[in-house]
């Protein structure tokens, strides 16, 4: 901008200088035209005495006058030419200044148009850049939103998968625990059943052995008692003083004793024998007390403290 101002100020200064020179020349010309030579009116000549004038002198004076006139004319011509040249120069300067002014205005207009064009282009470029920036921002925002949406979906998918995996693991863990609990219960039930079976078998075995032992003990008791039947019968028969009362009769006697063989009860079973025979048999048993009896206390429970003996006295 400073260069444009300096470029513009130069022709202006030239124009101002030319105007000042023209004004100065105009003033000088006006002064020269307004100047009038002073006319000296001749005074009334007084009669003089005639004198003799030398022609050579007159000729010289005449020539001097011509020279003066000639010089005056030359000076006037010179002045006129000078003023004409000055006017020509002034016109040329005026024309040059006018053209310079015209050029200055043209340059200014050109510059204005160039500046306007430049501003138009700058505005267009600014708008283009603004539109481009706006589009860039819009594209960036669109891209950001798209990427954000993509990330949101990816995060949602990731979370869904994580939740699904977490649920799968939780379900798997729950199933594992349920299976483990089921297995534990099954194993426990199996173990319980096994132990129960073992216990049952042990109990059964114990019971079997106990029953075997009991049966054996029972058999031993009956064997022991059986081995004493002859002795019991012999002892009763030895104390049966009235065997004749049962002559030709068979009598079954139920005898109940205590652990030491003491007879606690006697009863004839059924209708065997008559009354005399029955009383005779009962008395014989009571007299034979205590009867021979197994001395093992364990045998007593199997004998139920009661046994039957069939008598058929042989007279």
Describe the structure.
This protein has 315 residues and is mostly helical. The chain has a domain at 230-311: Fusion Protein Consisting Of Minor Coat Protein, Glycine Rich Linker, Tola, And A His Tag, Chain: A, Domain 2, CATH 3.30.1150. The chain has 5 helices and 3 strands. A 3-stranded antiparallel sheet has the order 2-1-3, with helices on one face. The chain starts with a helix and ends with a strand. 8% of the residues are buried.
Give the topology:
Layout: H1 2-34, H2 55-226, H3 229-238, E1 251-257, E2 263-268, H4 275-288, H5 300-303, E3 306-311
Antiparallel strand pairs: 1-2, 1-3
Helix tally?
5
Task: Describe the strand arrangement of the main beta sheet, using strand numbers.
Answer: 2-1-3
Q: Please identify the top-level CATH class of the domain at 230-311.
A: Alpha Beta
Q: Would you give the CATH topology of the domain at 230-311?
A: Fusion Protein Consisting Of Minor Coat Protein, Glycine Rich Linker, Tola, And A His Tag, Chain: A, Domain 2
Cα end-to-end separation:
181 Å
Query: What does the largest sheet look like?
Result: 3 strands, antiparallel
Topology pattern, helix = H, strand = E = HHHEEHHE
Question: Architecture of the domain at 230-311, according to CATH?
Answer: 2-Layer Sandwich
Helix/sheet category: mainly alpha
Oligomer: single chain
Entry keywords:
315 residues; mainly alpha; Fusion Protein Consisting Of Minor Coat Protein, Glycine Rich Linker, Tola, And A His Tag, Chain: A, Domain 2
